[in-house]
Amino acid sequence: MRIRETGELWWKTAVVYCLDVETFMDWDDDGVGDLQGLTQRIDHLADLGVTCLWLMPFYPTADRDDGYDITDFLGVDPRLGDVGDLVRLIRTAQDRGIRVIADLVVNHTSAQHPWFKAARRSTSSPYRDYYVWRSTPPPDTSDQVVFPDQEDSIWTLDEASGEYYRHRFYRHQPDLNTANPRVRDEIAKTVGFWTQLGLSGFRVDAVPFFLSDTAKHPDDEISDPHDYLRDLRAFLHRRRGDAILMGEVNLPYEQQRLYFGDSDGDGTSDGDELTLQFDFVGMQQVYLALARQDAGPIADALQARPAIPRDAQWATFVRNHDELTLDKLSDDERAEVFAAFGPDPDMQLYGRGLRRRLPPMLAGDPRRVRMVYSLLFSLPGTPVLFYGEEIGMGENLAVEGRMAVRTPMQWSDARNGGFSRAAPSRLPGPVVEGGYGPEHVNVADQRRDPDSLLSFVGMLVRRYRESPELGWAERAEILDQPHPGVLAHRCTWEDGSMVAVHNLTDEAVTVPLTLADLQHDDDAPARLVDLLQDGACDVDGRGRVSLELPAYGYRWLRVVHADDRRMV
To answer: Which letter does DSSP use for residue 70 in this model?
Structure first.
């Protein structure tokens, strides 16, 4: 195996960890997490094996949408620290082998941004065309709002000018007009500024919305929205050749493929748009499969993934910072998942998702929780963790909306979970209570326990990093076997190959597999060596093997030949 290639395209075998500085670690005890606290806790991420840290917005903000309503793209929220603190974090992370990326939120600004304030003052303001306006009353757009519990239109009347401005999200987040070349220049300046300070790329928020106005300006040199995305990728690579754009594109697979920059879809060329995209379709099928205890939806999603450019990658996840969206499921399928994992209406959000974390959804069953994370890391792609997943944090449903899963990190069983020594009333939000509270779930208790979830996730990270076929395989081969509740798949890259088997059911099973390419005579046997536990099994001359799996069991098995030199 040409292992050196994994260092060239580092993102194909990265382990990404997402966090909000505000809720991770408060070092000055003012109640708000800060960059200094995150820097002090960077060794937790290094010990876990994280190779890429994704920061949620740390920019100055009006703070009406947890930092996604930005008032200055080139600054740092003073509650979190300053630019110098960010540079220290980046250098410290790099010393531990961790790259840092950040949210690029350029679909909109805060209504308190100086650009929008200037745009509102006069219709002749040079900043007026930084945003999207209309002079006539808009039609009914209630079906286009992202947050139907908060907005009933994507247009709001600006009383001062008598015109309407567009906002796909909240009315306090007016949309930027990327049809305006000056706006695109401002975005490029933002990208260039932060990469110059050491960032290794960006997670791009709401990409289809962000591009929706591009190529609509008369006489503009941009004729297609994807031309702009290609320009942005090219600009980023001129500034830093190994930097990435990891995009949020929640669309069906065939539409997602276009955002990688592969126009013919044969997967044989390098991409020139997004470097990675989140696999929203696959994530939703995982939850449908868990609800049914039927692996079919996962297998179908893996087989439906389109070919992507050679240097592109899928970002796999089972939880993120937003609601757990189920919008790509049918109404009946979504109802199944709601019934299994969020039957209380208060657990649901926007009629399309859940505001819960994984362990409570699985009733805290450690077998099932570990099986899901084993599955995540075994899927072809780059795994992305949301902070606290490594210790099994739960949600706090007393907190409004999506914030239920953005509670303070639980470091110990001390007050406020060791996040801060400030009064609880000064925190960004309340800590989790009950069975998933810090007295039961925290880093300090788990970091020295070899049987803890933290130790288990750390092992998964190590095994994933030692198995580049998981990041480089073009697709998963679904293996035939008789159990509907079992997913057996194989990832192969060059001479490296691994078989993963996961039992989604509550009954033990014996899984027979036939691996035709491993047929052999008695002088050249092949073995399957367990990577998550001690043990191995021989493959018979016809390439057959039987695997025992307990309820919610899982196994990773490396294909080993007699002359192999890889470590197992």
So the answer is: B
* Cα–Cα distance for residue pair 18/2, rounded to 1 Å: 29
210: which residues sit within 8 A by CB, 6+ positions away? Answer: 106, 107, 176, 178, 204
Contact 558, 568 (CB under 8 A): yes
Q: Which residues participate in catalysis according to the annotation?
A: 205, 248
Instruction: Give φ, ψ of 397 to 5 degrees.
Output: -70, -10
Burial class from Cβ neighbours inside 10 Å (0-12, 13-18, 19+) for residue 198 reads middle
Alpha carbon of residue 274 to chain centroid: 14
Q: What share of the chain is helix, strand, coil (3-state, %, to 5)?
A: 35, 20, 50
Q: How far is CA 199 from CA 93, 180, 189, 232, in A?
A: 11, 26, 14, 15
- At 23, the amino acid letter reads T
Q: Which residues contact 247 (CB under 8 A, 6 or more apart)?
A: 203, 204, 207, 259, 274, 276, 277, 278
Q: Range with the lowest mean pLDDT among 158-172, 415-429, 521-535, 537-551?
A: 521-535
Q: What is the DSSP string of 389-451?
A: GGGT----TTS-GGGGG-PPP--SSSGGGGS-SS-GGGSSSPPP-GGGSTTTS-HHHHTT-TT
Q: How far is CA 204 from the centre of its chain?
A: 11
Each residue's pLDDT tens digit, 433-492: 999 999 999 999 999 999 999 999 999 999 999 999 999 999 999 999 999 999 999 999
Residue with tokens 């005579």: 521
User: Other CB atoms closer than 10 Å to residue 355's CB: what's the count?
Assistant: 24
Burial (CB count <10 Å: 0-12, 13-18, 19+), residue 522: exposed
- The least confident of 4-8, 64-68, 102-106, 250-254 is 4-8
The secondary element (H helix, E strand) that includes residue 52 is strand 52-55
- H or E stretch at 531: none
What is the distance of C-alpha 495 from the center of its chain?
29
Q: 44-55 pLDDT, tens per residue?
A: 999 999 999 999
What does the alpha-carbon distance between residue 403 and residue 397 come to, in Å, rounded to a whole number? 9
Are the CB atoms for 249 and 235 separated by under 8 Å?
A: no
Backbone angles phi and psi of 561, in degrees to 5: -100, 165
By the 8 A CB rule, do 36 and 42 touch?
no
**Structure tokens that stand for 279 in this block:** 């696999």
List of residues 6+ apart from 62 with CB closer than 8 A? 69, 71, 110, 111, 112, 172
Sheet containing strand 353-354, strands side by side: 324-325, 353-354, 348-349
State the number of CA atoms in the 13 A half-sphere of 441 facing the CB: 24
